[in-house]
Structure formats: structure tokens, C-alpha cells
Design brief:
Oligomer: single chain
Strand content: 15-25%
Helix content: 40-55%
Shape: globular
Strand order of the largest sheet: 3-2-1-4-5-6-7
Largest sheet: 7 strands, parallel
Radius of gyration: 21 Å
Order of helices and strands: EHEHEHEHEHEHEHHEHEHEHEHEHHEHHH
Distance between the termini: 18 Å
Number of strands: 13
Length: 389
């Protein structure tokens, strides 16, 4: 459906982290094809702002990971949510879209939906994996859930929550084949093996993983003296945190630092060592061998361990359906263990079975995700307008 209407739309959109900024920017561009005069406002990162979204607060204000970490920032987060609710209830948008950040967005969506504002949530929380009781809250909060993965849509249909599987925009953005040597030349990387280090895009992630990643890199470099590292930084803040950890370790690591360009860093690498999250999907789509680490505050990890109902926590293993990449969690995250896994991958070379599995997942997720999402949201708007007529 075209979704055309006479007047310009006001679309509220709230993203909670760097990955949401990527999704939101592409979604805004797709919605603009249907609604050229639409206004977008809410909480946005640099990509969404460049796409034309007015941001009331810096996206980093919402980018907090883990129960314990959230508790430290809870008063500020609640204050931001109250301000957004007051603004949107006083100036109702035609549509509210929450992108990820479920603990923040779902409560806001529920209150706005109760006021008759159509609400959609883009990127399902991992309700199928843990705290499945949340699906009832989600059903009360959203008029439409947009999922990135097919197994998520199946879960919501089983619980009678309106849902549309749209695929993953990253699968559309990342080409099926990437010339590793061409990327290396463009980045000015030296000859020899390359490892990409991505200890996370949040300050809390770097606090747990930057140190072990740096020490693991040093161990790898001792074993392979010509090894070079490339480190993409999500923001000036994460760059400062990584450089602080590097200085504390004594420095002395052959690396190339990048501002952003995480996909280039992974495309140039023979192996990727990274924090669990969206970056693991990028590595999968780039068909790069990887080692995935996951570490939280002890209390947060203990609580999560009690509630998780899936054998895997990394996206590649969940999507492939088996343990195809190494997952290193919590107390197992040590320089020795990390370096051992990275060196094993460097020495083994390409695993054709793994590459075939990655390619199959990529095919499932491709197909114009942002356009599908925009179409689904257009249908939601038309349905809402029909009810109001």
C-alpha cells in the first residue's frame, strides 16, 4: 500500500543505542519515500539525525546495559521517559515507533497506546529466550511488533501479538561478497594476519571487556609477531575508554584505530574478537570467523542465568541452530582463553561448513527489511485512520 495522505505526518521515534540508530536511519529514509513531508522527532543518534530526525536527548542517555548498571541510572532514565510521555501526550504523533531499548520503550508505548496513539516496536526483545511472561506486557503495549528474525515472528503469533517479520536491514546493507584485500588497502593496513577487536559500543561493555581483549591481543601478538589489530570506535567516549585501558596495560600493541567503520574493520580481518550483540550479526553476514565474549556485572549475570531459556546467547549460534562460533561467558572471559580461541581460528583458516551456514542465514534475512517495515507501518497508519474516520 502507498499509505499516502493529505497532510504531513508526525512520527515519534525513540532509539536506545548505536545499532538502533542504524536501523532507525534506514527506516526513516524508507518512510520518507511514502511520506515525503513527514516530520520525525524523539531520541536519535547521528545517523537518524542526518536522516532528518529531531532528537530531544542524546541517544547515549538511553544506552545502558545490564540490570545493575540500569539501576545506577534509573532516576535519570525515568525522568527522560516522563518528559517524552508528557511531550507526546500533549502533542500526539500520528505514530510512535520504539526501536529496541524494550525496558525503556515498552512502558512508554503502553501509556501512549492507552491514549489512542498507534504504537509499533522495531526489534523484538529476547522474550523467546528469557522472561517469556513479558509477551503479555508487549501485547498490551504495541499495535505491531516488527521482528528481524523469522523465529521471533513465530513466537508472537503463538501468543496472538500482531507481528510482521521484515528481515534485517544489515543483511541488505552488507554485500554477499567483500574483497578483504581491497578493504585492507583502503584502511592502510599492513601485510600479514589481521584481527579486529570490538569490545562493545557501551561504556559498561568496555569496562568489562576492553582490558581482557587488549591482554589477549598481546598474547596473540607474542605468538604471531606479524599480527596486526584494527579497532573501530563507536564514539569519542568509547575511544577514550579503550585508550585508557590500553594505557593501563602498558600500550605496545600494533593497531589501527578507526572512528566508526566497524564493518570495514571486520571485513578487513581474518578473525574478529567481539562483544555479543548486533556486531556478531555483521560478522556473520561478512562471513568472518569470530570469537564472542559476554560479560556483565556479577549480580546481573546471575539473574540472567536464572531466567535464560536458550542454549546459546550469541546471534550466530541462535540463527544457525548450533554452536558454530565460540562463546566465552563471564568468569571464562580471560586473556588466556580469548587468545587461545583467536589463535586457533587464525591457524585453522576458513571453515567451509561454517561459511555455508553463514551464507544460508544471510539469504533468509535479505529482502528489503526497511521497505517491508515501512510498508507494515503504513498499513498500521491506514488501519488507525480508518478507525478514526
Amino acid at each position: 500500500m502507498s499509505g499516502e495522505q493529505e497532510g504531513p505526518l508526525r512520527i515519534a521515534i525513540v532509539a536506545g543505542e548505536a545499532s538502533g540508530d542504524i536501523l532507525g536511519a534506514d527506516l526513516i529514509r524508507s518512510l520518507r519515500l511514502r511520506y515525503p513531508l513527514a516530520r520525525f522527532e524523539g531520541v536519535a543518534g547521528p545517523r537518524m539525525i542526518a536522516a532528518g530526525c529531531e532528537s530531544f536527548f542524546p541517544l547515549e542517555k538511553l544506552s545502558v546495559m545490564g540490570l545493575v548498571e540500569v539501576l545506577k541510572h534509573l532516576p535519570e532514565l525515568l525522568g527522560l521517559r516522563r518528559q517524552l510521555y508528557r511531550h507526546f501526550s500533549a502533542n500526539p504523533p500520528d505514530l510512535f515507533i520504539g526501536i529496541d531499548a524494550p525496558d525503556f520503550n515498552l512502558a512508554l508505548e503502553r501509556r501512549l497506546k492507552a491514549q489512542g496513539i498507534p504504537t509499533a516496536h522495531y526489534v523484538s526483545p529476547s522474550v523467546w529466550a528469557w522472561r517469556q511472561y513479558r509477551v503479555k506486557k508487549i501485547g498490551r503495549s504495541v499495535d505491531l511488533m516488527l521482528t528481524l528474525f523469522p523465529f521471533e515472528a513465530d513466537f508472537y503469533r503463538q501468543h496472538q501479538v500482531p507481528v510482521r517479520f521484515v528481515g534485517h536491514p544489515l543483511a541488505d546493507m552488507i554485500p554477499e561478497t567483500v574483497d578483504k584485500q581491497a578493504v585492507r588497502a583502503r584502511l592502510g593496513l599492513p601485510e600479514g594476519p589481521v584481527v579486529a577487536l570490538l569490545p562493545g559500543s557501551r561504556g559498561s561493555e568496555l569496562g568489562h571487556l576492553a582490558g581482557p581483549f587488549i591482554e589477549a591481543a598481546k598474547l596473540c601478538q607474542r605468538a604471531l609477531p606479524d599480527l596486526h589489530f584494527v579497532v573501530p570506535h563507536a564514539s569519542a567516549k568509547t575511544r577514550a575508554l579503550f585508550e585508557e585501558a590500553l594505557a593501563e596495560s602498558g600500550g605496545q600493541l600494533p593497531l589501527t584505530a578507526l572512528d566508526g567503520q566497524s564493518q570495514d574493520a571486520m571485513a578487513a580481518a581474518d578473525v574478529v574478537l567481539l562483544a555479543s550483540g548486533t556486531a556478531t550479526l555483521e560478522a556473520l553476514l561478512l562471513k568472518r570467523p569470530m570469537v564472542v565474549a559476554y560479560k556483565l556485572a556479577p549480580l546481573t549475570y546471575w539473574l540472567a542465568s536464572c531466567l535464560i531459556k536458550t542454549p546459546y546467547y550469541s546471534l550466530p549460534n541462535q540463527l544457525v541452530g548450533r554452536a558454530c562460533v565460540a562463546e566465552i561467558t563471564q568468569h571464562e572471559v580471560s586473556p588466556e582463553r580469548l587468545s587461545r580461541e583467536v589463535l586457533a581460528l587464525l591457524q585453522a583458516g576458513e571453515d567451509q561448513q561454517q561459511l555455508a551456514a553463514f551464507a544460508q542465514v544471510g539469504q533468509q534475512l535479505r529482502g528489503g527489511a526497511s521497505e517491508r517495515a515501512a510498508e507494515a507501518l503504513s498499513d498500521l497508519l491506514l488501519a488507525a485512520q480508518g478507525e478514526q474516520a
